């Protein structure tokens, strides 16, 4: 028995163990509240298993390449949307828009027709085009996933931070497997193909293994889902109203705890509400309001006598350097340049 058979056997074993965990996610009935989130993770694992299993079977039965490629493409087109549903459910809120699955459903309708129509070279070109499309399709969802993770990285909630860590690891692992899919499409050497397939199965098993070890929180939604979208939305709106009232954001000792007390909630819930419905953390929102107020002062002819330092402290900043860095971040200009530019235009 050569190394080829050993790698195929090892890949099959790793796939089998991962599929077993996916089935466990379906069968677990301990908490029905999180059933959909468990099922989403299970579907992700099964979609990857379908695609990697295609590679394993292809090694053993290369004569069925066309049929196996079709099954693999279906799995790949399902991965992106399922991944998107899952990370949103666990980090933000459960929201499933089924139109994300449209490419997969279209391919499912096209493949039977393709199998029985047209010459082989035409079918091969169409399959190649769909395969490339499926790779781009997956990558788009991964990039959007990274952006969602980046926005939720500073929630201030320990449980949420663990979830961000988990989906970060999940995304990076899935990206490694995606690179394997690309390499399999480009390089035709059989030994290399087998090695890449084994690597995919190993990373895939790693995802399932980490998920099993952290089962207690990877299948639970964040508090945003438990509190309800409407309640959180109202908290975010109240926070904005209170901030604007009497220019509360200009108070240089304002903290998220003080604001939370004013609107009758706690700092963790307020942080979740702002990140979810304003797409900003509390410091980001506070700096936004302060910079907007500073812009008004710099443009107002009645405040031309105020120095830049005075405007910074009037806007609520404790440090001139912090004011300068935030101002330039928002406007790509220094306060002095902004004031000069406005006075020229005016």
Automatic annotation (TrEMBL):
| Organism field | Flagellimonas flava
Alphabetized UniProt keyword annotations: DNA-binding, Membrane, Transcription, Transcription regulation, Transmembrane, Transmembrane helix
Transmembrane stretches, by residue range?
Answer: 6-27, 39-61, 67-86, 98-116, 128-150, 170-187, 193-212
Instruction: Show the InterPro entries listed in the entry.
Output: Homeodomain-like_sf, HTH_AraC, HTH_AraC-typ_CS
SUPFAM superfamilies xref list: Homeodomain-like (SSF46689)
Q: Which Pfam families does the record associate with it?
A: HTH_18
Q: Which residues belong to any copy of the HTH araC/xylS-type domain?
A: 238-341
GO molecular function annotations of the record = DNA-binding transcription factor activity; sequence-specific DNA binding
Give the protein name, as stated in the record: Helix-turn-helix domain-containing protein
